[in-house]
Amino acid sequence: MINKLLIANRGEIACRVIKTANAQGIKTVAVYSEADKNAQHVKMADEAVFLGPSPSKESYLRGELIVEKAKELGVDAIHPGYGFLSENAEFANLCAKNDIIFVGPPASAIEAMGSKSAAKHIMEQAGVPLVPGYHGDEQSEAVLKGAADDMGYPVLLKAAAGGGGKGMRQVWNADEFSQALNAAKRESMASFGDDHMLVEKYLTRPRHVEIQVFCDTHGNGVYLFERDCSVQRRHQKIIEEAPAPNMSPSVREKMGEAAILAAKAINYVGAGTVEFLLDEDESFYFMEMNTRLQVEHPVTEMITREDLVYWQLVIAEGKPLPKKQNELTLTGHAFEARIYAEDPSNEFLPSTGNLALLRTPKETDVVRVDTGVVEGDDVSVFYDPMIAKLVVWGENREIALKRLLSALSEYYIDGVSTNIDFLKRVAGHPAFVSAELTTTFVEKHHDSLFYSAASVDTHENIPVMALLALLHRKKNAKDAAKTPSVWSGAGAWRANSQHSESLTLLCDQKEMNVDVKHQSEGVTYSFDLTLDDNNYNVTGSIADGVLHATIDGYKTAYTFSENDDEYTLFNKDTHSKFTVISPSLGDESNADDDANFSAPMNGTIVAHLVEKNQAVKKGQPILVMEAMKMEHCITAPYDGSVEEFFFQPGELVDGGSTLLAFSSKEADEG
Ligand code: ADP
What we know:
The chain is of the alpha+beta class and 670 residues long. It has five domains: 4-103, Rossmann fold (3-Layer(aba) Sandwich), CATH 3.40.50; 132-201, 2-Layer Sandwich (Dna Ligase, domain 1); 207-452, D-amino Acid Aminotransferase, Chain A, domain 1; 459-585, Glycoprotein, Type 4 Pilin (2-Layer Sandwich), CATH 3.30.700.30; 593-669, CATH 2.40.50.100. Helix content is 27%, strand content 33%. It contains 19 helices and 38 strands. The protein has an eight-stranded antiparallel beta sheet, with helices on both faces. It has an eight-stranded antiparallel β-barrel with strand order 24-25-26-27-28-29-30-31. Helix 4 packs antiparallel against helix 5. The longest helix is centred in the last third of the chain and has 21 residues, at 462-482. It is elongated and about 95 Å long. The chain starts with a strand and ends with a helix. The structure holds adenosine-5'-diphosphate.
């Protein structure tokens, strides 16, 4: 019986496991590092134990310490999640030695699958189809190259100890072999401390299809169908789906049976995934077996309506599998998109920082968000930068895909770079829509999936950006008016009735000038904008981080965030960032006044910074005033000149007094 479960993991998977434990009435213990002191998984668990400093080696990978704490707290079982200690045979043994159930396979099964070459030997003997290749012990370059020459190019060099696509190299012809081998060995040695290599026939257009298997301690095994994880970047999964599109029932059954065969060959127990490459001619080949719960397990849960963590716990307790093969059904279609803090346009470089804005689509029966963070949390440098997994279900692939796109368009994150726009481009790509999936999808469609922000036509967004900047300033002005002590606040300079100004936005390193005529004010504000000889009537309001905009009669809503004067505006397809260069935000004087500047409260004129009638440039400081011991500088709202200063330096002014008259250059010329 498991009454108390320790989750030796963090983030979304720790939260995920806790949810099922809670539902089963099992008490939970979280573990955490310095960086995770306030993490969600710690808050969700009944108890939490501190492990040490943030680096995984000093916290989440400290198997002995984790087992020691588990014993102290009377824990019955440890769930390792994925990553960290999940495929560590020593840790599984350590749990067993201490009479703690390891929620996973026996150590021997982990060991058997730990080396790709050893695993291939076992599978070969069990009669599981393998990609043609060499997985022997003889490692001289001559032998490896001889094997490659025999099977014909292209070939794939793989690190026997590999994982996460590391130590892997494609070799397209004999001339490239030596160099590729050296590179793969170096990478493998650096990542795994071992440079044993495999040579495989490189399939040029395969799909990555994997089977979810479960085995119990009574010798039963079932498969919960397949997942297609073909869409990858650098051998890492981006969007997974279940079932695999266009998979014939006969191939499904054959692959499912091959997976059970693979699991039985190593006396497997628990949840496991057998990965296959599926070739165009429907032949499939064993690639490897992951001896843990996979990141992408939710798509299987969606189509089978089973809780895989529940299954793991039942099996860990020594009970038989919850269902037999013929009791399992496959319903509808599911997708999972991995939301990462990374920059796809910069080689998917991880991004770290604070999740200043985090809005997720509404969770329903068909939309699920598995995450371990909330708005305001940090994405730290110490761990995998996955923010969440967005999972959707539909009656068929088409419906599920529509839901995926719609949910992605409701996912807004600011503070770190994310792959959300990239995911939208992948999911919306015609080849993805028509399920033309291969592991080279991203490479093949590179040009339409990656484009620099600069090539996006942001021009059409400018009126929306201008509207947002104007409304936000109005809001700041109102807020500041409520707290008069904020001298530099926007309320400092009251609007006059004449409303016309020029606004400059910086977007994609381009300055965009917008002429603004203020029309009406109230709950919504209305402006006439002129941009490159085009006129727009824009109306809108902002509340709770959402801009409701009507641009020439077209109504739409945008989520936005503001960070140090930089705005991020999210719409269905993408997001745009811009800064207001002038007038400076929160300074209504510049904005709302043609040529009048009034003091908001009593104060003293400190200095005139320009001469009367001197030509001044937009943004140039013209007058300094002091009030409440703070200086405030007034800048020119546009090119022009001061016609008259009504007060001299040293003079006291009353709140509301007009300080100067300003005229625009245009007015002078006109
Ligand atoms: P890792 O353990 O490093 O993730 P895998 O063996 O699981 O490595 O392979 C990762 C990915 O590499 C697969 O999903 C597939 O896209 C690609 N791959 C692996 N073997 C082959 C092959 N023989 N031919 C073509 N692509 C392959």
